[in-house]
């Protein structure tokens, strides 16, 4: 049985990297207190998944702080295959203000049906999948965010924001 290419760089911002569909409610994340849909309905999240054994993933890491600044309406969280020590060191080195969690690559696949890394999942205010895809730098993550407003809204399983998100 062949292994999925976890370092695929297809340049597509879409749903190719994960098996969830737009509008699907994300499964809970064990051990991670990630702000998702709040009572006020303003809990959009950007979940980024990366392996520390993947060159494309490692190349993405320096771009995450800029991406987080460029999309302040989202709470960014990073999931890596590193252990807690690795994650703390990266957080300190890059000066990340967002949380970094450990998750085995197999768990990423089982829980979120992720088949390629690095990738990101964006949720809407209700904690439902709004967009997902392979991301390799801040520009691709910001383009993924922009795709949320460009898709068909409720017809694609997403509710469009009532306000300007840019």
How would you describe this structure to a colleague?
The protein is an alpha/beta fold and 166 residues long. The protein is 27% helix and 16% strand. A five-stranded mixed sheet has the order 3-2-1-4-5. Helix 2 runs parallel beside helix 5.
Query: Would you give the CATH topology of the domain at 45-151?
Result: Glutaredoxin
Sheet with most strands: strand arrangement: 3-2-1-4-5
Helix content estimate: 25-40%
Q: Beta-strand level of the residues, as a percent range?
A: 15-25%
**Biggest sheet statistics:** 5 strands, mixed
Oligomer type: single chain
Number of strands: 5
Q: How would you spell out the order of helices and strands?
A: EHHEHEHEEH
Broad structural category: alpha/beta
Task: Write down the CATH class of the domain at 45-151.
Answer: Alpha Beta
The CATH architecture of the domain at 45-151 can be named as 3-Layer(aba) Sandwich
Let me know the average pLDDT: 76
So, the CATH homologous superfamily of the domain at 45-151? Answer: Glutaredoxin
């Amino acid at each position: 049985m062949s292994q999925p290419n976890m370092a695929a760089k297809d340049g597509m911002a879409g749903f190719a990297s994960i098996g969830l569909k737009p509008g699907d409610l994300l499964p809970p994340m064990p051990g991670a207190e990630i702000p998702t849909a709040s009572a006020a309905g303003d809990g959009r999240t950007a979940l980024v998944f990366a392996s520390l054994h993947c060159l494309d993933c490692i190349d993405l890491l320096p771009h995450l702080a800029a991406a987080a600044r460029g999309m302040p309406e989202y709470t960014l969280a990073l999931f890596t295959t590193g252990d807690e020590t690795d994650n703390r060191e990266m957080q300190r080195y890059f000066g990340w203000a967002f949380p970094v969690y450990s998750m085995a690559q197999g768990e990423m696949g089982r829980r979120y049906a992720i088949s390629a890394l690095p990738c990101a999942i964006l949720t809407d205010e209700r904690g439902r999948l709004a967009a997902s895809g392979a991301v390799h730098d801040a520009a691709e993550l910001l383009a993924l965010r922009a795709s949320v407003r460009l898709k068909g809204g409720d017809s694609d399983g997403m509710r469009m924001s009532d306000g300007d998100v840019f």
